[in-house]
Amino acid sequence: MRALLFLLVVTNAIAQSGPQVQRSHTTEGLRGASAVSRQIAWASGTHGTYLRTIDAGHTWTPAQLPGAEALDFRAVVAFSADEAFLMSAGPGDQSRIYHTSDAGQHWQLQFTNSNPKGFFDSMAFWDATHGVVLGDPVPDETGQLKFELLVTTDGQNWTPIPRSQLPPAEPGEAAFAASNSCLAILRAAPRQLGKNERASAPESNDPNIWFATGGRVARVFHSPDLGRTWQISDTPVTHGPDSAGIFSITFRDATHGVIVGGDYKHPDQDGDNLAFTSDGGKTWTLPQIHPQSYFSAVAYDRNYSKASSSRLENLVPVRNEIRSGGICCASTAPATFAKNLNENQAAPRLFIVAPKFIFDFRPPHDPTRISPGKKSPTRFNAVSPYPDGGALFVGPNGSIATIP
Question: Which domains does the chain possess?
Fold first, then answer.
């Protein structure tokens, strides 16, 4: 029988550097986040809204892209204080890609989905000129349902990956545009950027592409060669209803990854909503941790140290609670939790996002649950790790928070 493992604990180190809520100056729902550096970050959301900070979140400046008032920007990927890409999600021509190189003074519409049944879900970039966008399945010329994948090699023009190279989707299978993280790639090691410095391209881009699905099935699609060939793996994550499945996928290297999900219509419902892989996504293992809930996003810390990896079995749970900036921190699932994750799975820091809380797994410390105060309107949808460690979180009603 699975044990009830979520005991509340907290460490002194975490208490000294608690999370911070930031004022976004908007009440729009936010699902896109992109942390370029500790100083520079962008966010995006409903009604054509995007936000930018260049002073570490002390000031967020919201704006509305002209002519895009009806669009929902589910994804933003930024490379500097001036350059960013926006992706909107919606039926047909409501799914679009925009680009700015002057901090939003001007926006170029790069692509509009012309298929009335199309729906963009997620966008990822290896560097400022090489990116990929995922869209829900649409019928090909034979009527077979296949996911849409677009790529750019110059940061300006987008080309569909030929349908002949893509495997078919199952009836009732789709991806979720909940947090711009149902699509995963491996980026080059980050470095700290200056205010006006543009992220440079790595010498070569990793060829792996993964994306995760839900609905009738919960599967992971993996291409080891930039979309030329594909393998599909079934997963044990909760699925069945069109509101359930895998919502987010992330990899820290070509073999170790995490998927999270659940049923967003039943966010507090326990289930098999978290799984790990150590073979590149071929097989997925459920940790024996319960209760869980619906998780909308997952991300590895981008500055983890392999040297910090250590076994966790000897950690002892303590009970405590703190508050910082309107956020309540409480650690969860110590010693027994550790026994259910092998050393490879637990080595780096990991952020898991639920609507009402965040799990911060920071080995060798106890996992920490971070929740808004009872009267706080702060909620969470998405996460973007900072290059030098920690992460930025965004959510409904203009919610923005950071964890060092």
Answer: 12-403 (2.130.10.10)
Contact between residue 391 and residue 349 where contact means Cβ atoms under 8 Å apart: no
Token representation of residue 158: 């987008």
Interatomic CA distance for residues 390 and 399, integer angstroms: 17
What are the pLDDT digits (tens) for 226-254? 999 999 999 999 999 999 999 999 999 99
In the predicted model, is pLDDT for residue 381 greater than 60? yes
State the SS3 of the chain: CCCECCCCECCHHHHHCCCEEECCCCCCCEEEEEECCCCCEEEEECCCEEEEECCCCCCCEEEECCCCCCCCEEEEEECCCCCEEEEECCCHHHCEEEEECCCCCCCEEEEECCCCCCCEEEEEEEECCEEEEEEEEEECCCCCEEEEEEEECCCCCCEECCHHHCCECCCCEECCCCCCCCEECCCCCCCCCCCCCCCCCCCCCCCCEEEECEECCCEEEEECCCCCCCEEEECCCCCCCCCEEEEEEEECCCCCEEEEEEECCCCCCCCCCEEEECCCCCCCECCCCECCCCCCEEEECCCCCHHHCCCCCCCCCCCCCEEECCEEEEECCCHHHHHCCCHHHHCCCEEEECCCCEEEECCCCCCEEEEECCCCCCCCCEEEECCCCCEEEECHHHCEEEEC
Residue 363: pLDDT band with limits 50, 70, 90? low
- Closest by alpha carbon to 148, among 165, 166, 135? 135
Hunting for tokens 């975490």 — which residue is that? Answer: 14
pLDDT digits 0-9 by tens, 123-182: 999 999 999 999 999 999 899 999 999 999 999 999 999 999 999 999 999 999 999 999
